Backbone:
């Protein structure tokens, strides 16, 4: 887990996103226990209520579930759900604006694809 917060989003939202990132990246697998509110608050030096609010976001989204007296665990299907959500966000945030700008520049679909191929071959 990373420990850098920025001022663009509430800390509880950043906590939820960091755990979601760890789930997508495979650092926390489906069925694995996630860090507790206490662990998060100590590690990030934040209020327990802030950490709890971030975890509640994950529970409300169906990505993690509570097991009374034991902790919280990554739900089955969480990776698939997160990937679908992030892919939709990627389409809205990046692909749609890219296509709109490409149209303004009179780029063909083939030219766009070629640019993408060139960009990925340079990595």
Residues:
């Amino acid at each position: 887990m990373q420990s850098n917060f920025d001022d663009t989003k509430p800390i509880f939202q950043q906590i939820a996103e960091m755990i979601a990132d760890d789930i997508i990246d495979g650092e926390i697998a489906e069925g694995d226990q996630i860090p507790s509110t206490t662990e998060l608050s100590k590690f990030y030096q934040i209020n327990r209520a802030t950490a709890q609010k971030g975890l509640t976001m994950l529970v409300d989204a169906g990505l993690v579930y509570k097991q009374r007296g034991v902790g919280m665990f990554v739900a089955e299907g969480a990776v698939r759900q997160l990937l679908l959500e992030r892919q939709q966000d990627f389409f809205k945030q990046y692909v749609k604006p890219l296509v709109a700008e490409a149209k303004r520049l009179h780029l063909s679909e083939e030219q766009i694809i070629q640019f993408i191929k060139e960009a990925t071959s340079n990595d």
